[in-house]
Amino acid sequence: MSIHPLEATARAMVAGSKGILAADESTGTIEKRFASIKVESTEENRRAYRDMLFSAKGLGQYISGVILYDETIRQKAADGTPFVDLLGKAGIIPGIKVDTGAKNLALCPGEKVTEGLDNLAKRCAEYVKLGAKFAKWRAVIEIGADMPSSTCIAANAHALARYAAICQEAGLVPIVEPEVLMDGNHIIHRCEEVTEWTLNAVYEALYMHRVILEHSVLKPSMVISGKDCPEQAGVEEVAERTVRVLKRCVPAAVAGIVFLSGGQSDEVATEHLNAMNKLFKGQLPWPLSFSYGRALQQPALKGWKGSSANVAAAQAALLHRAKMNSLACSGSYTQDLERQARAA
Ligand code: 13P
Quick check: 253 and 213 in contact, CB under 8 A? Predict the structure, then answer.
C-alpha cells in the first residue's frame, strides 16, 4: 500500500528519536527574548540569530523539523542560501507558524482565542510554494477561578479544527497545539482535568471537520502543577498523569505527539519527556517526542548574546540540548550526561 505524502511527512517529523525545534517566535516574542540578552530586535539580528541556530553542524542528527515564522521563511543564511534550503540540506523539514496570535475572547474576560483563519488557504498555498511541509497553530487555555469556560474550549477547538482541515487541503501537515498554560497556583489534578477536557473537545472538532488524523501531529502541554502551586509534582507523577490523559483522549491513528516546553526549565522538560518514554516503553501507539522553543533555545540564546564571536559556543549549547532531548525520546537520558557536558 502506498503511503500518502502527508502521512510520510507526519511520520518523518517524529521518527528516529528526533524532535522539532520551534523557532517561530513572532516579532513581539523574539523582541522579549532579545531584551533578556540586551540585543536590539532588528531584522538583521533576528536573521543572524536564526542563521546561528539553523547552521549548527549536525543538528539534523537530533532535529527532524524546524518551525519558522513568516519573516524567517523568507530569509537567507549569510552566504545567500535560503533558510529553507539550508535546512533541507541538513535533512530537516521546514514548517511554518500560520496562526496570527491569541486574542481576547469576547464576553469571556481573561480568556483567549487564536486568530488567523481569514485567508488561511491562500497563505498556506504561498507557504507551500516557499517550501513548507507542515504548519503550526497554537491555542491557549488558561486555568483560573471559573476558567477555562466551555466557550473558550469550544472556540479554540473549533479554530484548531478549521486550521487543520485547511492545511491538509493545501498539502501541509497540521501540528495541532492546544496549550494548557502552567501559570497559576492550581494543583496538578486540575491541570489533568483541564487537559483531558481540552483534548476531548479538540478531537471531537477534528472529527467534525474531517481532519485525517494519520496526516496530523499533536503538540500538547504536559500535565504539571501550576507554576505557583506550593506542592510541585515530581517527574514520575508528571509522566504518569500526562500519559494517562493522552491514552484517554488521543486516537492511535495520530502520527505522533511532540510536547511544548511551555516555560519549564530546559533540563526539567528533558527529564519529563525521558520519564514518559522510559516508564511506558513499548506500550504507546504513538512516538512521544519534543517540539520545544525555549527549552531548546535558552542556553544558545544566552551564549550568543548577539555577537558573531559567540556563534560556535551558542551552537554547541543548542546541539547539546537537542542531543539530550533526542536521548529522552528513547528513555535513555541521564543527569550524568549533563554533568559530563558541564565538566567538558
Ligand atoms: P515552548 O517550548 O517555549 O513552549 O515553545 C513551543 C512553541 O512552539 C509554543 O507555541
Answer: yes
Q: Which of 259, 264, 294 to mutate to test the pocket of ligand 1 (most atoms within 8 A of CB)?
A: 294
Q: What is the CATH number of the domain that holds 262?
A: 3.20.20.70
194, 179, 216, 203: which is closest to 14 by C-alpha? 216
Residue 7 is among the residues annotated as catalytic for this protein: no
What pTM was computed for the model? 0.97
Name which of 10, 1, 2, 54 is nearest 212 in CA terms.
10
pLDDT tens, 213-269? 999 999 999 999 999 999 999 999 999 999 999 999 999 999 999 999 999 999 999
Pocket test for ligand 1, best of 21, 291, 297, 318 (most atoms within 8 A of CB): 291
What is the number of the ligand 1 atom nearest to the C-alpha of 292? 2
Grid cell digits, residue 322: 537537542
* Residue 114 identity: T
- CA-to-CA distance for 324 and 337, rounded, in angstroms? 8
300 is written with which cell numbers? 544558545
- Looking at this protein, which amino acid is placed at residue 207? Y
**Structural domains in the chain (count):** 1
User: Which one from 18, 133, 219, 323 is the annotated catalytic residue?
Assistant: 219
Domain that holds residue 14: 5-343
Measuring CA to CA, how many Å separate 313 from each of 25, 58, 140? 22, 14, 34
